[in-house]
Q: What sequence folds into this?
């Protein structure tokens, strides 16, 4: 994928994430009369919203870093080994910063 197309996709993804983050940062539980059963359900909803917010924020950071790599002229190169990231991976995950092998190593460390 060429860098112009990559930048457009990343910027579109960023705009969508920003909208989602804005919604998720709103009050996940409306103020209303609660039964004891509703309180447990509301807590679960709040936990779910927080998890989604955390995931969206993490992805937003990865997208910002990918845009920075485009600006620096190193987009499409693995941040660990420097080899090219496979085209198919860049198509599927334009924010990818590692080749498949290095990403696998990174995930095993966690």
A:
């Amino acid at each position: 994928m060429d860098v112009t197309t990559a930048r457009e996709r990343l910027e579109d993804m960023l705009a969508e994430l920003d909208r989602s983050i804005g919604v998720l940062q709103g009050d996940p539980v409306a103020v209303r009369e609660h039964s004891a059963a509703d309180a447990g359900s509301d807590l679960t909803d709040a936990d779910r919203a927080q998890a989604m917010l955390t995931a969206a924020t993490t992805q937003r950071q990865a997208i910002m870093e990918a845009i920075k790599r485009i600006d620096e002229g190193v987009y499409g190169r693995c941040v660990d080994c420097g080899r090219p990231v496979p085209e198919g991976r860049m198509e599927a995950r334009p924010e990818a910063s590692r080749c498949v092998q290095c990403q696998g190593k990174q995930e095993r460390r966690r």
Observations:
- Confidence is low (pLDDT under 50) at residues 28-32.
- Residues 7 and 41 are 40 Å apart (CA to CA).
- DSSP finds four helices and no strands in the chain.
